[in-house]
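Dear colleague,

Following up on Tuesday's group meeting, I ran the structure prediction for the two-component complex that the binding team flagged. I've pasted the input sequences exactly as they went in, so you can double-check that nothing got truncated or mislabelled along the way. The structure tokens for the whole assembly follow below. Feel free to forward this to whoever is handling the docking comparison.

Inputs:
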Amino acid sequence: MIKKIIVVDDKTEELEKACDLVMAKGFMPLACSTNEDAVDTIKKYQGKGLVGILTDLHFPVREGGSPEGASGLYIVYKALMGDISVVICSDIDHHKADWANELIGAVEKATGKKVAGFVQDSKNWERALSLLLNEKEK
Amino acid sequence: MEKKDLKVLVVGGSDVINAAVKSAVDLYSVQCDVINIEDAEEMIFGGDYTHIIVSLERDEEREKGVIFYNLLKIRLPAWRKNAKLFRAGTEDILTDDYVRIFSIMNDLGKKIIL
């Protein structure tokens, strides 16, 4: 069975950049641009070679929808509930990161599980992937 | 692209439509595989298909087919796959990416085989 990593971002160039890195490490990337796609993909591949999730924070819930709001938190919640490793990768700046960290903390508290990492300030997918793979090696 | 280099994958939940599309492609002596939606992604990721046809028509599978078609529009470029993506159905849609089942031979000939 091919090992898979879900990658969530609404920007095509970011998705392709992240997916290239995932493929270079020998995994099959499952690109998603909306919340709905990501949740469907989690359901489809949970227990079927799914290694983990790399997700942005801001993207639309539905195709063509507004990217306002931290939709990625829902993916984080679904991942943690399903005991799937997840790393957040967002170019959210320091000023906004405070509330994002608080919300992530609340999700962690609610699920009793921790995210494998939160890469802030830049879309550093390489760092995010490295955090995810380190988590899997533990 | 020469006919011998074409490799078509038919994806869908309807055995009838899958078989209809495959039979039509076979008549052109072009390589063609058929797979259900559930198992299609690994096959596409690991394969070298030049054309992928997602069949849409069967009431309970229709939405599933549309969702899968839209997902492939994102995933194919992310996998660096150049396969051309088509939908197949019974509606009289004339766009280049739609293969009409009722005139399948004509549409395959014009839009894929060239």
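The longest strand of chain B covers residues 84-89.

Cheers,
M.
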